[in-house]
Every structure is written in structure tokens, then in C-alpha cells.
Prior knowledge:
CATH topology: Neuraminidase
Shape: globular
Largest sheet: 5 strands, mixed
Helix content: under 10%
CATH architecture: 6 Propeller
Distance between the termini: 37 Å
CATH class: Mainly Beta
Number of helices: 3
Number of domains: 1
Amino acid sequence: xxxxxxxxxxxxxxxxxxxxxxxxxxxxxxxxxxxxxxxxxxxxxxxxxxxxxxxxxxxxxxxxxxxxxxxxxxxxxxxxxxxxxxxxxxxxxxxxxxxxxxxxxxxxxxxxxxxxxxxxxxxxxxxxxxxxxxxxxxxxxxxxxxxxxxxxxxxxxxxxxxxxxxxxxxxxxxxxxxxxxxxxxxxxxxxxxxxxxxxxxxxxxxxxxxxxxxxxxxxxxxxxxxxxxxxxxxxxxxxxxxxxxxxxxxxxxxxxxxxxxxxxxxxxxxxxxxxxxxxxxxxxxxxxxxxxxxxxxxxxxxxxxxxxxxxxxxxxxxxxxxxxxxxxxxxxxxxxxxx
Length: 339
């Protein structure tokens, strides 16, 4: 919201909400992450990718002059460390500004990493091939499209196929502000493939995190300013039809899926006002929710972790692997916890 210090009405930002601490027995901050790990995606073998260093108009940054990057952590190691992945020559690293990420494993075991990128605050989706032996990413393709004006997150469904959320309809900063302030509900989900690009769901206040059920039948979309998670059914032609909406009492950011149980893990912002108006003496808090049986009549919603900002500020993602919980943030640190 560059230049416009006006925000959505306070009820949509949950501006008066404070959190009660919910601690886990064993948590430590991850070394080397000081300026945000907005999204995290874990491969079935325990390799975790972190999207770090996001810079966004209107948001605080602890490293405004440092480009973003992708870090890798092997969760099978005794004391795993996050290491930056090298990116192939020819890719513009100086303007790399990664946001939402998603991995896809092809039938030949090739691992593709999809990254929402905002070079110079524009919108692209980058596709990389992960080369594990070299600890590097080979850049394959940059995707720009008029239906992807304000991309927030992606879920890969093929080697060059994905669903993406747009968190605004407009690209102009003033129109973006107006759209949010007027609560237009014009944001959407787009399906992209090399052969077809189309709008597949719309009417969200601010579509944010997106993910898919383990059986690949359902797509989940977080609507951050409406405090909702939408469950959409995937059709054979890749269109999405709404099944249900789960209302929550917090601003829901990225969604991660536990592949074994199908549980949804959500990084949340209990108080959105503190995110935009950064005050080090009263920082944004963090909250992690676990949602079990979302398709049932009464899904079970549990607060697994909550902190007033004294340890972790602005949690944007939470994801699990083999008894380990990783929590990332918009612009602060990241946490490694044992469940």
C-alpha cells in the first residue's frame, strides 16, 4: 500500500485482539533467518525450502537492501541448519523478492520449485529445477500474465502447471488501497498451464495462501481479511467449485498440509494492524492453528502455538514433518519446534 497509510477497517484487521501465549516444550530460532521466511514447503524426504527476505510496500523490513533468497534445511539431520541455495547464472538475483512457494515432484523424480517473485514490486512466477547434488536451483522459466496481476501464493499441480492466488485485483497502489478499503471482494484464483490460463474462483476479500488436499481432490484458499478458509473441489477441467467456508477469529495467511493426516496447518496474524504499523515496543504477534477434518460438520481447530511477539513476530506459515514444526514469518525470524 505504498504511500497510502490507510488500512482496512479495524474489525477486518482484528486491531484490538491480543493473544494468550501457547508454548511448545522445545523451540529454537533458526540461525541465518533474520528478515522473514514468508513461506516454507517440505518435500516428502524431509528437505525444507524457505522463501526468505520478502519486501513489500507498506510492510516493515529488517534487511531492506538485501535481496531475497531460497534456503534449504534437511530435517533428518540431528541439528539441521538452513543453507542458502545457489541459483543458476542468468537469473537476476539482485531483484529476487520471493513470496509464496510450492514444490512439484515429476514422475521421473525431478523436483520443481515454483516461486512467486516480485522483482521491482512486479509479479512473476519463477520455475526452478532443484539439483540436490549441487545444492542449487536451475532457473527454467519466468511466467508473467495479465491474469496474474498481484500474485501471493501458488500450488503446483504439474511441471509447469499451478493454481495461484491474487491478493488484489488492481496493480496501481492507490486503486489497491481503495479496493481493500471498499471491501470489493474482487480477488481470485487463477489456473495456469502452458496451454490455458483461466480464472477458476473469485469473490474473495483478499485471497492469500493456497494448498491442496493429499488426495488432490480439494483446493484450500485462505482469505486473510475475511478470516476464512475456503474449501473448493477440483473439477476434471481444473475449474474449482466451492464446497464450504470455515470462519476463524484471526487473519489466515499460508496453509500447509500434513500429507499423512490431511490436517491443515495455518500461520496466522492475530492482529493485522500491528503488521502494517510496526512498533518494536508492541510488535505483531504470532499464532499457529491446526485444523482437523475440515470437510466434516465440525472441524476441530486447535491453537498449537501463540506468542505476543516477544519471540516470533508476524507468523505467516507453519508446516510439519515427522514431529517437527517449522514456523515462518513475514519479516522476522523463523522457529524450529519439536511437537
